[in-house]
Amino acid sequence: VAGLYDYGPPGSALQANILDLWRRHFVLEEDMLEVDCTIMTPSDVLKTSGHVDKFADWMVKDPKTGEIFRADHLVEATLEARLEGDKRASASELDNVPKDADDKSAEQDKKKRKKGKVQAVKLSDPVKAEYEEILAKIDNYTGPELGELMHKYNIKNPETGGDLTEPVEFNLMFESSIGPTGGLKGYLRPETAQGQFLNFKRLLEFNNEKMPFASASIGRSFRNEISPRAGLLRVREFVMAEIEHYVDPLKKDHPRFNE
């Protein structure tokens, strides 16, 4: 149940104020067309948009403990910890802080500590450059590439040091069924864009067939995050306020187009 939050009276009031300000600033000020679309979305819609096939993250599992990790987050956290450990080691050298004299006892101490935690270990300049390059493009790696990085840099379960499985794809949408027979597959929407796109024709008619225009939608979206984190930022159920602009590429005569 991680990543599921209830808002009490102060949180509810704060959220309502933020959404009210957002609506006044965008929807009313810019004359946008607001819609309120269904949360439950037929599979065909999200198949067409690519979400059924591609809206996924890569996860790895510790077969001994059953713990699940999101592969890119694990690689990122491990390499960042090692870079931080290098900084600490460098600072220790500058301060003339004595290191463990006995290599054997130091190695045993390392094994006792949880891997993935920050340890003061000096890295070579080429290794630091490699880590920094990987971190700069961590969002672009495929599952197999993340697996190769984990093997190359010996990335394990940060809590136990145990081996992890190869990354496998995990779709982030909550799957359900529509109707009493269960024959029509559906999903809880992962974002509010699809409802706005589906209603484009009706919105265009509502706007007297004039382009460009913008639609807006405020509502709940759902993502079955592998590892919810960062407080309220990466959660499984959240309120989204989203805008879509529709522009005819051959007729950009909106009076404020340059803005």
From TrEMBL:
<dbReference type="InterPro" id="IPR006195">
    <property type="entry name" value="aa-tRNA-synth_II"/>
</dbReference>
<feature type="region of interest" description="Disordered">
    <location>
        <begin position="89"/>
        <end position="119"/>
    </location>
</feature>
<dbReference type="InterPro" id="IPR045864">
    <property type="entry name" value="aa-tRNA-synth_II/BPL/LPL"/>
</dbReference>
<dbReference type="InterPro" id="IPR002315">
    <property type="entry name" value="tRNA-synt_gly"/>
</dbReference>
<dbReference type="GO" id="GO:0070150">
    <property type="term" value="P:mitochondrial glycyl-tRNA aminoacylation"/>
</dbReference>
<dbReference type="GO" id="GO:0005739">
    <property type="term" value="C:mitochondrion"/>
</dbReference>
<dbReference type="GO" id="GO:0004820">
    <property type="term" value="F:glycine-tRNA ligase activity"/>
</dbReference>
<feature type="compositionally biased region" description="Basic and acidic residues">
    <location>
        <begin position="89"/>
        <end position="110"/>
    </location>
</feature>
<feature type="domain" description="Aminoacyl-transfer RNA synthetases class-II family profile">
    <location>
        <begin position="173"/>
        <end position="259"/>
    </location>
</feature>
<protein>
    <recommendedName>
        <fullName>glycine--tRNA ligase</fullName>
        <ecNumber>6.1.1.14</ecNumber>
    </recommendedName>
</protein>
<dbReference type="InterPro" id="IPR027031">
    <property type="entry name" value="Gly-tRNA_synthase/POLG2"/>
</dbReference>
<dbReference type="GO" id="GO:0005524">
    <property type="term" value="F:ATP binding"/>
</dbReference>
